[in-house]
Design brief:
- The structure holds two protein chains of two kinds.
- Chain A is mostly beta strands.
- In chain A, 0% of the residues lie in helices and 51% in strands.
- Chain A is built from no helices and 13 strands.
- In chain A, strands 2, 6, 7, 8, 11, 12 and 13 form a seven-stranded mixed beta sheet that branches. Chain A has a four-stranded antiparallel beta sheet with strand order 1-3-10-9, with no helix packed on it.
- The radius of gyration of chain A is 13 Å and the shape is globular.
- By secondary structure, chain B is mostly beta strands.
- Helices cover 0% and strands 52% of the residues of chain B.
- In chain B, strands 2, 4, 5, 6, 9, 10 and 11 form a seven-stranded mixed beta sheet that branches.
- The chains are: A mainly beta, B mainly beta.
- The interface between A and B is medium-sized, with 23 and 20 residues.
Chain lengths: 113, 122
Amino acid sequence: DIVMTQSPDSLAVSLGERATINCKSSQSILYNSNNKNYLAWYQQKPGQPPRLLISWASSRESGVPDRFGGSGSGTDFTLTISSLQADDVAVYFCHQYYTTPNTFGRGTKLEIK
Amino acid sequence: EVQLVESGGGLVQPGGSLRLSCVGSGFTFKNFDMSWVRQTPGQGLESVADISTTGDLIYHADSVKGRFTISRDNSKSTLYLQMNSLRGEDTAIYYCAKDRVVGPSPSPIDYWGQGTLVSVTS
């Protein structure tokens, strides 16, 4: 199984500042034939299911604020929130769908400093 | 509006059984692969079982193989998870999840149900 390692486990950032969350896969999740990375990012707030923010490593879903951005390729990926808002307090997960079984990172808890 | 509504969770003793159901609406259910994903505070998110549009391709995690069975009834837009021989470590919130991409291609999950809690305890 592909292991997804997220860092840090938790993060406290001041309002308006940048938040950066990392995710590393134990093997490449870049499909060479289409040059796509099979990596998604989700946001989960207490008592709610995860919400898809970004797919294919960098493609923002409709309705997701443009302060959320995804980057990276191969085995190393980053979710960046360019200017943290109070509504962004949540746990963030990465997810590889390159192969079965799909696997998830253990989550990064983002809080306001 | 896409909706996934789970039911069937609850409290059960070790060795017992439960059947989870998930009714999908707001999309053409038969066109999408579906899955069950569970979440625990300690283990995070785990893909438990996946099923293709017609049910001909099925995946079960090693942790549940031989005990859980995923199935679907496209005529009822319903996904199922039959859970037998339940163990304490199966205690979790179980989410029904829909693939974003039509058909068999690898896909992120774009919609999740609200989840149903399964608690296995004596």
